[in-house]
Amino acid sequence: MRRHPGLFLSLIVVLAIIAGIFVYPKGAGEKVEPWKLGLDLVGGSHLVYQIDLSNVSSTDQASVVQGLQTVIEKRVNLFGISEPNIYTSENGNQAQLFVDLAGISNVSQAIAEIGQTPLLEFEEVDTTGSSTQYVQTNLTGQYITGAQLTFDQTTNAPQVSVSFNKDGTQIFSEMTAANVGKPLAIFLDGQLIEAPVVQQQITGGQAVISGGFTVATAQTLVQGLNAGALPAPINLVSQQMISPTLGANSLKQLIIAGIIGTLLVMLFMIFYYRLLGVFAALALLIYIALTLGVFKAIAVTLSLAGLAGFVLTIGTAVDANVLIFERIKEEMKRGLPKSSAIEEGFRRAWPSIRDSNTSTIITSVILYFFTSSFVQGFALTLGIGTIVSLFSAITTTRLFLRFFLKDDKTTKV
Amino acid sequence: MFNIVGHKKIWFTLSIILVGIAVVAIATFGFQESAELKGGTLWEFKIPGQALSLADVQNELTNNLHITDAQVSADAGNQSFLVIFGSISESVHQQYVNELTTEWPSFQELSFQSISPSVGANLRNNSIIAILLVLVGISLYIAFAFRKASRPISSWKYGWVTLLTLFHDVAIPAGMLAILGHFANVQINSDIIVALLVVMGFSVHDTIVVFDRIRENLLNHRGKVPFATIINDSVNQTLARSINTSLTLILVLLSLYFVGPADLRYFVLTLLVGVTTGIYSSIFIASPALVLVSPTENV
Questions:
Q1: For the whole model, what pTM was predicted?
Q2: Which domains does chain A have, with CATH numbers?
Q3: CA distance linking residue B76 with residue A381, whole number of Å
């Protein structure tokens, strides 16, 4: 890079222009890959469910949480919500399920839908001793692929027949084999609905539930099971709803504040550092284009806090430039020729640039690992921004200076 | 050349007074925790076309909806109201929406947040862990980064002094938040905690710049110039850059404060106060404190 600053500089400028086109909100880049904006900017709902794992053995927790996520995804998709974002977090015995629904207005209906998801459990019955004990098994609603309404051939009573998937078939087969002649209890939403006695091992992956249904109740259960049954109970513990107008307004204000902030920083740098400042200002623009390009390319979901974090890095991105320029001025005062002063300035400012940025990166990493979604977005943009700003302030600015500032006596730094 | 180190008693006294006020404010008033941290409901709505006063809305919520603990605040400009009360279930929320829509047909919900106390407690614990980890992480890093500048004071002392200035820079904005919480009902939420953490990350920038110069000057002039003089020279030599690096951030923060979204107002204010405190502490506290902890202070 020392030999051909012009070549590398042109490369960076071209890259920044491509990034600029790619990230421009209404430009061609939007067709390649649209921006992912958080719920607090587009409006929508953030629901947090506590998953009750008290009856699940620790070895099965991961699969139960996974199954739960699949079921809720299926359910929310059926509801016709575009791109729901459903994720879980586990922390010891506590597990939470998050449902992010972007831009919909009838959240209460969605909450009701999720809340109506049936919880189906099969339990073994232990009748040794005087009392009846129910023993939790692995077989739950997550293994059900479908259900249908059938009628008992002799009594004509409505019943629900369910089909299991491959894993479910396996578990059900083992369970029935182990319990021939004993009852097997079926619980729906925590209520015992029936405990038929197993006549023989069932390997076909089909079970029939006939627990005194009316046609209507059987029908509801069939619909519920077809939409997915829960492997563990869930409980809505937190919800956040932001209207799309409020979100759009925040986004607009944040963009305007970002642009004004950028202009102020550029003006300050040019006013204080003159020609050097012009290069820092140009490097800042390149920084903004490249960083936004990275966010979009790795599909960071930008929330209000995340964008705010990025705007803050605009204020700190030129820090390295300030340190370098002050150092260059100092070296020139000591009588070094300009090109050596520039190289010395970069070299000697580096330890303080490295150490100060490391502290911000430490903060971002800790924030990222100790917080939940909204704050994580902030930590991510702050961290990425700080790393890209190191590149921009050091490499980009150095190339500018090497290319434009030669050792003649006419240009004054 | 300013004699900053020589007047260290003035700067320390000023800081002790400010930190003292902050600690007393936090101890007596505590923080107003938002629904996010202690559990509860945060509800924002507007009712266009109705000339409603705060009292009208408060009255409706207390008497018709029977929300006994509702605290209403209003943004007179666009007639939007913000209500804070205990956490409620979704069905109760829907019932409230229906009742308010019946009362005022133009009722429009802007945001609704209801968080159970357990979720809040979790967030609060994680925040405290994060703050402690940042304090320790940055201080350890400084002790490591300055391991070569071990004479006349050990690199651990750079770490301890950094920890002291970090505490200083967080205590002052935190004290301000306790005072604002008591008198203006400003609440602490996760954004504000993030702001305090970021203050630590940023405030240490300037401190590092000065320490770096001290490290360099010590290597060049060791033994020839008294330690206090090296420190005072270093602070003066880096004065412009300490101020300028923070000034660019302050410019961005000011534009966020005045033009940015209202939701971020206290987040930005916390940062503004913290970053400004950070400039002060890096110049007037961190470096003079190094002189204080050095064994050869009598120079």
A1: 0.79
A2: 5-40+243-404 (1.20.1640.10), 44-239 (3.30.1360.200)
A3: 34
